[in-house]
Amino acid sequence: MSVELRERDFKAFFEAPFKAYGRNSPYVSPLKGDLKRLLSDRNPLVSGAGEGALTYFTAHRNGGVVGRITAHEHGASNRVHSVRLGYFGYFDCADDAEAGAALLEAAQAWCRARGLVEIAGNFNLTAMQQIGVVTEGFEHAPYLDQTWSPPHIARLLIENGFEQSFPMATMEVRGLQNAPDMGIGSKQQAVLDNPDFEFAPINQRTISQRIEEARLILNASFADNPMFVPVSAEEFHFQAKDMKWVMDKRISAVLHHKGQPAGCIICVPDMNPFLWRIRSRLGISTPWHFLRHRMTNKRAIVIFAGIMPELQGRGINPVILRHVMMNAKAAGYTEVGNTWIADVNPMSLAQAEKAGSSRMHRLHLFSKAL
């Protein structure tokens, strides 16, 4: 039976990866309600500062869903970088050549109709969220905010004329409890001895202020990175809406210099084992699974780290990283992962390795001229 495509069928879109990959797959979905919110017109990517547009498709065979994909435009990114680039994202599909080709062609046709000249992905949904397709390390279960895909996804893309580029890696510190504390050099000691530097308190009263400071640090420190677009307060708080409820305030850090934000590391408990158990659906047993996870979880994930440009080169990032890793160790965490680091950022890769990280996944973007 031939493949049927449907547009904006959210129920099928959510179910697609579970049907395509099976119950024992390492794949983890965002919560169903969160995914629906991300794909809605309330997302500032579409309705606000993102200046964009978005749709999504599902592929069906014999009455069952076998794959999905988004097609979207990040208008603000195209304007900032003077390109006409379309994105695809959430490309999850069974090992089905016809279904994969139909989904990819639907995304390409949508982008062509908008006058875009190239398509690239996965972007779930922008460069500051989950990006890439896994090309190595399929055996590793992803942390929160890491993407995962089986080997045939990259193959389907190549078979449909896409080329891989922009190599990235996710990293992980394993056995944190047995790892030696990070050493410090003269630069780092100078920061620790300087009374102008102090770690800002993170508690229920200050957390909203710390999150806003993290946004300011993100925008300033990533300004020269490829694909980056400054994140508006509306966009940041839309994406981080529930972060304050899952944060372990012991393992994130915002460093001030003379009372102003200087750098930060945002690190949160890994919620993926919990989401995997409940299949990202809320139900009667969800509170029990959540409490069990809170009591047993030993994994954390660094969402991002940044230093204000005028303070870079002074040894501040290792100071914050050491502070976070020592606190994570004291809190009983045994593994700490990070979101993607691009090969074009060798300093960040070196810093992760210095902290004792080893590679988990290899990822690439896949692109095609339209």
TrEMBL record:
Coiled coil: none annotated. InterPro entries: Acyl_CoA_acyltransferase, BcerS-like. Gene3D superfamilies: 3.40.630.30. SUPFAM superfamilies: Acyl-CoA N-acyltransferases (Nat). This is N-acetyltransferase domain-containing protein. It comes from Octadecabacter ascidiaceicola.
